[in-house]
Amino acid sequence: MALRGGSLQQWLVLRILAEEPQVSQRELAERLSVSAPTVTHHIDRLEASGLLRRARDTSDRRVVRVDLTPAGAQRRAELEAVADATDAEVRSLLGPADAETLHRLLTTLHDRLREAPQGETRAS
Known about the structure:
63% helix
């Protein structure tokens, strides 16, 4: 993605916003499993680049909603193509059975890490 002027974090933010329009900054931080200041940093940069916009929620002014701009939707599509090509390359190197095993193991690891209390990722 870096060769295309993007980053994994940028793609993840844009992808979430494409799937969940008008998500709040807090919800976005939760989806990314990052802190509020970290997501604010990403949003600041993407907003400055014209890829997304922020607006106060009309029913609760404390909530800030984030949405893609047309340029952000285009950038997400470009980075999605890079991710798809990378996925296809990895799958071709492993073969179908090994690719499925890797996917299953990574999904299990991801789910267990999300379930573990913060700071408790090792078995006792």
